[in-house]
Amino acid sequence: MASMPIFRCGVAAWLLALPMIGLASERPNILFIMSDDHATKAVSAYDDSLMQTPNIDRIADNGIRFDRAYVGNAICGPSRATMLTGKHSHGNGFYSNEWSGAFDGKQQTFPRLLQGAGYQTAVIGKWHLYSDPVGFDHWEVIHNNFEQGSYYNPVFRSASGEQESVGYVSELVTDRAIKWLDDAVLDDAPFFLFYSHKTPHRDWMPAPPELASWDDNEKVAEPATLFRSMTGEVQARQQARMSIAENMTEKDVKLSKARNMTADQERLWLDAFAQGNAVFENSDLSPEDVVRWKYQRYIKTYLASVKSMDREIGRLLDHLEKLGLSDNTIVIYTSDQGFFLGENGWFDKRWMDEVSSRTPLLMQWPGVINPGITSEAMVQNIDFAPTILEIAGVSAHSPMHGVSLRPLLEVPDLAWERDLYYHFYENPGFHGVARHYGVNTGRYKLIHYYQDSEWELFDLENDPSDLVNLYGEPQYAVLTEELKKRLKKLRKDYAVPAEEPEAPWYHSYLIRAAEMLLQ
Length: 519
Ligand code: CA
Known about the structure:
By secondary structure, the protein is of the alpha/beta class. It is 33% helix and 14% strand. It is built from 16 helices and 16 strands. The protein has helices spanning 11-17, 54-62, 76-85, 89-92, 110-116, 169-184, 208-212, 235-239, 244-247, 263-281, 287-322, 354-357, 384-392, 406-410, 477-493, 507-518, and strands spanning 29-35, 64-66, 69-70, 120-125, 138-142, 156-158, 161-163, 191-196, 329-335, 361-364, 373-375, 379-380, 420-424, 436-440, 444-449, 454-459. The strands form 3 sheets. The protein has a 10-stranded mixed β-sheet with strand order 7-6-5-4-8-1-9-10-2-11, sandwiched between helices. Helix 6 packs parallel to helix 11. The chain is globular and about 65 Å long. The protein binds calcium ion. Calcium ion binds next to loops.
């Protein structure tokens, strides 16, 4: 494929690294850990200014941290479909959470190929593709709440039907993953376990230990752009409905009582939030201070949910060690995309912006990946499937959009020139984010909001937070034309169809009604 990375002078380094491959000649186990909406800013291996994630950090300490890992469509279901197929949304047919129907599990996915090659395969936790998982010997996925599952007492769906549960979702998912591993280790065949967390997806509900230690008086630093005005920016940014000030609900900030809880869980919940709620409701805060209050509730429950999940990831990693599997198991940590943590005054994802289209990506593989290394190569979630297949020694039947990252695991600074394609389709959709596609070269990002013919150009070296739109500035005219050519080439290489997928005509009305009900 023409859009493959170009290996310039790195070929010699790659050849030198070849003898190391022999160390991993036995087919390794693969533990693929995925979370939901986990911004790199809330992974201390990337940035420890907001919180500590000691267990996720173990993977970075033992292996490689990718600093420029992105997704191709920053929203839950489409990102998972891309991860499974190694193809952008137009290649796998799953464009939108809201109106794409169910994922077609009969198409080529890497778990199906692994299963066919003799791997034991399982998915446990969030699935969110509306169809039964295909390619897994065992699947237990959270099902209620439109396949989001609930943080407390979720319903699991499996081949044998639906099963209610009592407890906290990360703990329940980990219990099930441990149980499956205990059985898998008895078989000689290698395993692939897709251990999939719903955390820290909206509406950010922490586990009992985090509720028990909740302190409303603790404050988290505000982002510099919490009160950023969108006046003068493209219409697409002005029209979005994802601000903490306007679009965050009472449920989001824990002013309303949590549902679907046992009496004991509810008592913990009220002990954590009721007093702070009473203080807030009896206060006379300025509109700005209300935003500050909501931001604190938001960011603190988000971070506390991550803490709950990190602890459970640690429990699973400990169990892997206890079973003696650590040495021949590749552990991968990633999320389905990033998230706005108050930047622009926003929550949610969807945009090609750095905070939402970037995702954490960490991998450990003893004997192959040196501990504590980093890579700045431009990589994307289309690459996960080809990478895992190469590691497992399995060939794909039909081409994928992504490329294997296997060479980078041993030569992380391998010369790697690559443009990344991004395409967000879910409009009409929640939060009113316009459809857009674009190219990210690593240095520059060009975005086209094609419904309203608007453009943005960002210089990521000087403006890593996508704040200053340079599109239309005369001194960038030549560069803009060059980037448009590169974008056009990407669309041609990936055969992106000119015809757009359409939502049902009534979808925008449904969304607006649902958003008003939530307020
Ligand atoms: Ca997500």
